[in-house]
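Let us work through a complete example step by step.
Step 1: write down the sequence.
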Amino acid sequence: MPESAKETCRNWFFKIASIRELLPRFYVETAILQCYSFLTTNEYSQAFMRLAVMVRGIGDPLVAAYARCYLCRVGVLVAPSIRDHLMPCFDDLLLTFTGQVICLSFGTVCLIITQ
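Step 2: predict the structure and record it as tokens.
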């Protein structure tokens, strides 16, 4: 990989990191995650975990759920062997809706009542 390509890629990620709003920064960085291959291949796991933690700052539960799903989808497409970020995203999704949804289990049937 040419050094100029690495430097250009690094500069773009620095520019994206300077975006102040959380949602645009998250979606732009997630959209170009495949460009991490210009830098190194072992940075995918760290980037996925950082983005998974970043989603916790989104206040709207529905928007946060969609962002987690998008991150998981992009992660599986970009680096299918790396799955470290999937369980934290799922756990955060469950924690987000724990206070909003009550699930009553009756054998195999699950009744969901929203508060």
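Step 3: interpret the result. The chain is about 60% helix and 10% strand.
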